[in-house]
């Protein structure tokens, strides 16, 4: 499959003017800088890093992100685990609560020598894992903790249930530790708020680990992570590893939270002007929601970027020009409502780049990344990506 992608793009032009639109651009320099900055921060905090590969779903990006070719890594689908395992990644956490019907695939990876850990947050899952472990190698499992009411997991205060799930797993030789994700941090708006979310995340994970240890159960792994808290946390005492994923590309949601600027966003969609509705103040482009996704993650932030922030072909934002609406294959650009900005004169055929609200969702609309570097219109390669579960 990956070879098919490469073959289809073996005749890439030398510069972006020759590309068919819409297509996905990845700024290699910004990617590398984002990765280096996160590594340096976590190294200074003396905590291990387990990058999340769900955003990129790309072997080429993975080579630049992982601390070592064999890992550690985080994945969000078993398809990711299977593909990255074939590429030599040996240490992974599947960071989604396990559906019992997926356990045979987990067992197959374990038997192939992959140290794949899974998640559980209830006795039913733990019992299914224990039963599957009885028929093969133990399935190392982390108990999922809900540190902020954002998603799934046991709350840190529920010591009885955490211990009950832990005992089931430990009896099967499957208990590895606890894991939490501070998804509520996506609602933060200031550095202080992000730092507070990081502190709550750490406290919740450490409390859950102490419940297990206090009951005489092992808890070697205490795993936390989200891009805002990974980037903002200063104290990781009691934490063994930090996970983060979207940091490698960043996006407008992360810029709105305050953990990056638009100059750090490595991902953009190249599009062409295909028409105008001057009576409505619209410019029409060939990138609709099939190219950008339907994600409106900045709608509740102080600055609403609608479906994306519009840049010139050089990647520099055009002041107050946004994609205000999206049909399947049509994007509608207009001046930001309430701003006295004149609509730029962009003729049919003009090239633009649009920064996405949510890098994961936008990347998922494309089969690969056209690699570029800031300040240049030259193309430096094509990195395929994959989807599926």
TrEMBL record:
GO terms for molecular function: D-serine ammonia-lyase activity. GO terms for biological process: D-serine catabolic process. Pfam families: Ala_racemase_N, D-ser_dehydrat. Keywords: Lyase. Residues 266-373 form the D-serine dehydratase-like domain. It comes from the Bacteria. Belongs to the DSD1 family. This is D-serine deaminase-like pyridoxal phosphate-dependent protein. It comes from Aquabacter spiritensis.
